[in-house]
Amino acid sequence: MNQLIIHVDMDAFYASVEVRDNPSLRGKPLIIGSLPHERGVVATCSYEARKYGVHSAMNIKEAYRLCPAGIYMHPNFDKYRAVSEQLHAIWNTYASAAETIALDEAYLDVTARAGSWEGACGIARTIKRRTREEVGLTCSVGVAYSKTAAKTASEEKKPDGYFEIPDPEAFVRLIIDRDVRVLYTVGSKTAEKLNRAGIRTVRDIQSRQEDVIRLLGKQGRWIVQQAFGEDDRRVTAYRPEDAKSISRELTFQADVHDRGLLRDVLLLLALSVERRAARVGLYGEGVSLKVTFANMKSITRSRLVPSTRSAAVIYREALALLEQVPDQPVRLIGTGIYHLSGEDGRQLRFDDLLPDTARRQREEIETALTALGDRYGLDFAGNLDKIFHGETLYRTVEYMRRHGRNASQNT
Questions:
Q1: pLDDT tens digit sequence for 360-376
Q2: Among 105, 164, 274, 317, which one carries the catalytic annotation?
Q3: Is residue 29 a contact partner of residue 69, using CB atoms and an 8 Å limit?
């Protein structure tokens, strides 16, 4: 039996959750991301907002220009993660393998459970029904013989869509005369290269295979295969250790000149990275620092370290990396760990064998947090759980930026 794959994709996920929880937002152009007076981008938006031309990753100022009457909200990632867990628990019930793509999206291999094409279609409809009834949200579902076709199918009737593509012939008939961007691996830059060569549709890809491969190399071969409906990739369950890095970054609402403030923010970011890494049981063998300057130029610095997820180590290394960065106004700063491994795969360092290491690192962080709280008149040590919620961290750092160091002594 060929593969039976379902692709599930929620409809405007963040916005739909907010509308579900506040029905007065229904039917209105809702934009989730930054607020109009802030720096930032659109995370997602309702379909009503999309009618104005607003879309994900758009600069928030441009979104406001297009849709000044829209309702703008900050995202609540803790709420979205909780809803995501509900969704994936439903979807995974029917799959022998589930490949999580995002909080709101997954591939499901239902070959064994379904037993037939009709069985797979029945599962897909059940998933749609249960998602609506148990979580109060709509999703778009595609059923197909491959991952590429399933992804295409789920996009075909959005929102609240359902579509079937049973075989390669049906897939090719559907997309043959569409723009090359219908193949989800063809992004804007790749499409531009193809368009410059006069390759604009899937039919063009089929008839000019050698040109596509010459232009794009290995990627071109994969695009040609897709154009003929060929895709034998398996659904592979996501593992946290497959991630390339764990990081946290933050954009300031006004450029920061104060290196002391940057160091203070790095402490909070390092603690956030430690918590994220601990949640998925991972360690890193490198620490990175990302800085975006006021002129929008970004640089990344990194260094290898013995396997760690300790906030004390991340903070210490990030400070050292900051010393290598030009002293210019900063728009964004972030830090993280990379070269990830789990407990079984990590190489023990000598300090791991010393019982006092963890205690000393925790004391180091607690001392730094106490000093940080004294500088700004804030109780960091007593409110860390709340502070690491995305919105609260953002507001905390903005308070620090506006009031400056030694804020408690100025009030």
A1: 888 888 888 888 888 88
A2: 105
A3: yes
